[in-house]
Design brief:
single chain, about 140 residues, alpha/beta, 4-stranded mixed beta sheet, methyltransferase activity, FkbM_mtfrase, transferase
């Protein structure tokens, strides 16, 4: 569906496609880049596959989280069924997938992020930010 919709929305493919909260397997940033869009991936703890895809397809990888502030916050490492799982990492300590283990990570507010990437046009902003979607970005 994205392969049809995005070129309809932005036929000259000049707008940024941004994948926030990439995770470990659903690489929307790869789809965006393969469609010929300038692409940014935002993931605080990127897996090697994401690093390789970023190099292969010219995806800008930003190792950070979006938050309601700029600076450093605790990223609570994900846990599901008693096993560590990157896909459940969250800034929310009380999120169902969060464990007690955490790492300090860089965080950016949405206005700071947009300013930093110097976005003139955004075609799509995909957010998957594990329990933090409701914060005032």
């Amino acid at each position: 569906m994205l392969a049809y919709l995005l070129p309809e929305i932005d036929s000259d493919r000049t707008g940024l496609c941004i994948d926030v909260g990439v995770g470990t397997f659903a690489f929307y940033c790869e789809i965006f880049a393969k469609l010929g869009f300038p692409t940014i991936a935002v993931e605080p703890l990127p897996v090697n596959k994401l690093r390789k895809l970023s190099q292969q397809y010219g995806i800008t990888l930003i190792e950070s989280c979006l938050s309601d502030q700029d600076g450093i916050q605790s990223l609570y490492l994900g846990s599901f069924a008693g096993l560590f799982n990157h896909n459940f990492n969250s800034l929310a300590a009380d999120w169902f997938g969060s464990s007690r283990n955490f790492k300090p990570v860089s965080v950016l507010s949405l206005p700071t992020f947009i300013e930093n990437i110097k976005a003139q046009k955004i075609t799509i902003l995909k957010l998957d930010i594990e329990g933090w979607e409701g914060c005032d970005l």
